[in-house]
Design goal:
By secondary structure, the protein is mostly helical. It has 4 helices and no strands. It folds into 2 domains: 51 residues; 49 residues. It is elongated, with a radius of gyration of 22 Å.
Amino acid sequence: MTTRIKVIIVVLLVLGLIKIVSLIKKGALELKYALTWFLLSIGLALIVLVPGLLTGISNLLGIYDATNMVFFAGIIFLIIIIFGLTMSISRNSDRVRQLAQSMALQDYENRNK
């Protein structure tokens, strides 16, 4: 990877981190969700700044090509994100059901007074 590409990637990562911090300050993004993106940015920065890191990790895992390692890591990352979102949706669905039931009971009590 050329130095120019490395600089561009690092600048984009820093800009992304700045945007994440500003979204957290505005309250548009919760810290628990931002942590994933912080870790991803740090991991990508390490891969860009340490030349043999990706090859070393892929050799350690028995993956013969660093490109395949990138795709493998991307797929694993997406699965983790989807699983986390599924858990969040499940919790929110339960909360909505409980709130709807609570509101229905309150409405019923108000009508029968």
